[in-house]
Amino acid sequence: VSKNIIICGHGGKDPGAGANGINERDFIRKELAPRIKKYGGGDIEIFDMSKNCYQETQKGRGIQTLKGKNVIEFHLDAADPTAKGGHIIIAKGLSADAMDQRLADVLKKHSGWRNGEAFDLRDNLLNLNTAKRLGINYRLVEVCYITNPNEVAYLKKNVDQIAKDFAEAITGKVQAATTPGTYRIYTGTFDTDAKAEAAAIKIAELGFKAFFKDKRAWTGTFSTREAAEKARVTITAEYGYNPKIRKESA
Ligand SMILES: [Zn+2]
After folding, report:
1. Which end of the chain lies in a sparser environment, N or C, as judged by fewer CB atoms within 10 Å?
2. In sequence order, what are the residues at sequence separation of 6 or more whose Cβ sits closer than 8 angstroms to the Cβ of residue 61?
3. CA distances in angstroms from 103 to 115, 194, 205, 229, listed in the order given
């Protein structure tokens, strides 16, 4: 059981807004939410997609069942074809928390914010009001405008990256980028091999394999560029030495 739960807006016989070949219910259930779940793994669950959470809340078994969870409800906004940007609805009287801020960053990166504002404070939505009354951490994300053809084209093309960014915003965990390969770190040139050897010994004290050659200190190999970069930063912070990364030929 996860602490974070996604609600897919609309559902059942209610497709929500429809335009530009998609509707809210189906796009969020089939395209967006499963990808967010894929990237979020065990840290994210999805509210029963066969249900319409709004109707469930009306019956007392929607939001009411989510006590103790962080709830993120997803929708696509609708207005005239030129309206653009996404926004996040939070309850009037509350302020955006760290997850809200991270979600706002995702919107800013992809669609921008509606009228330049990330947050809309409201008190006239059932799930929002119910969550506030019960002390449940809740926000409703309007990802972008389904009525804007450019935004729908962008959304369809970039849904995987958008979902990954949402997953990271929800979990607060960044999916580490990995650039595989064989990488080695080498220092600048010393006056003598003896000084290079001394530097290699110092680098080894940080837990890296190290040796000297041609008046430079060298490390053993790293299997990703990111690991090598982390080590380079560590060596620089400890000793300087002007270390650089070299990609070894395969
Ligand atoms: Zn909607």
Report:
1. C
2. none
3. 17, 53, 41, 28
Distances (CA, A) of 191 to 26, 35, 202: 67, 55, 17
Q: What is the pLDDT of residue 175?
A: 67
Q: What is the pLDDT of residue 174?
A: 78
User: 230 CA distance to ligand 1 centroid (A)?
Assistant: 43
Cα 49 to ligand 1 centre (Å): 15
Environment class of 195 (CB within 10 Å of its CB; exposed 0-12, middle 13-18, buried 19+): middle
The whole-number average pLDDT for the span 214-234 is 94
Q: How far is the CA of 17 from the centre of ligand 1 (A)?
A: 6
What one-character DSSP code corresponds to residue 20? T
Which residue type, as a one-letter code, is found at position 240? Answer: G
pLDDT one-digit tens code per residue, 169-197: 999 987 667 788 999 999 999 999 999 99
How far, in Å, is the centroid of ligand 1 from the Cα of 177? Answer: 33
Q: How far, in Å, is the centroid of ligand 1 from the Cα of 76?
A: 6
pLDDT digits (tens, 9 = 90+) for 233-246: 999 999 999 999 99
Query: Which tens digit of pLDDT belongs to each residue from 54-71?
Result: 999 999 999 999 999 999
